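Take a look at my tokenised protein here and describe the backbone shape.
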Amino acid sequence: MRLTGRALAAGLWCAALLLAGCDAVETPAKPYAGQSVEIAGSWTGTEQANFERVLRAFGKQTGARVRYTSGGSDLEVLVSARVRGGTPLDIAMIPQPGVIARYAATGAAKPITGAAERAVRAHFSPQWQQFGSVDGRLYGVYFKAANKSVIWYRDDAFTAAGVGPPTTLDELTAVSQTLVDSGTVAMAVPGADGWPLTDWFENVYLQLAGTEAYDRLAMRELPWTDPTVVETLRVMGRYWASPRFLQGGPSGALQTTFTRSVADVFGRRPGAGMLYEGDFVTTEIAKLGLYRVGDGARYFAWPTVDGSAGAVITGGDAAVAFTDRPVTMALIAYLASPEAAAIMARSGGFLSVNLGLDAAAYPDATTRSLAERLLRAPTLRFDLSDLSPSGFGGGNGASMWRLLQEYLAEPTTDPALVAARLEAAAAVAYRGM
């Protein structure tokens, strides 16, 4: 049942929540007038402004006063401090399932129940419900999702080199060499930020080792010294070490931030022809204002390895409740609605896995294509580093980030040695859970 925002406000709150499969009932037009609810996330700048539009729509319909607090890169510090201080946020937008599980285990996170749970069940696939669940109970709704299995390229660079988008890793290597031979560096790698390197690992690993090994590694049932890990590191190191494959070489990549890497491909003085990162690159390309997404700036799916089927690595931001007040659950339910997703989708730089969202809400064909791949991927796995303890894979200065940066600095290092270092760091992090 598709509902307009006005219809929701007028009469479909159904026990003060919406879209739970129930019929309209007589309820106050603004059931939470005068009540306050606080929600925090990592979003700043344009993303924050876009999300605040969603929150204002909820406030207008319900009368609730919603305050957004940005924790930026220190969101986890903010959430933890508020929990320890006895003044928890009502909701936090948490990207790491491992962190959600930790808060659920301590009772700090509250299960999503009642009509709010029914709203999530109605609009999200079983797999996305599972991503937000701990021991079978629903704790998070993934309001924003990411497609992390795409490589962006500059159309004019490919045309000049006479190449097309590769579909296999061998073809990616060949295209990279042809770009180099034509005078263009192959790839910009934002090694300074760390997390893009974990995404490199996850995409190669999923393609090379398969879903069973990926799941076992994520669940700590497979050591990081396993031959599949070593081979994945070997593949990455071989590419990183190839002359002129990386903008600035390995040392230059280590000093390149995510935003800088986008400018290195799509800026005023482009150096590289390609950039690996997720769908959110579109926002940075648009800010530069020089290449149009879907025209001069295009993408291709992460190349397959050894004949493997295509697969998608995903991530996202889940709304997790830290209070179980009715107004908190009402906001959770609203974030699970197609209407809330549509507000954010129209602003760009956003993908939703809400099954009720009309794809026409996305601002361009490229974004619609990225969202479709996320919804229809035959193989979908959550970002492995986000499934790990924050000290290992899911936070600033995490061991996986640091060790892959060290490997990028010296990509000819024996990959077995890198794997052993990762295993040692994982053992420490998982013991501390």
Notes: The radius of gyration is 22 Å. Residues 1-26 have pLDDT under 50 and may be disordered.
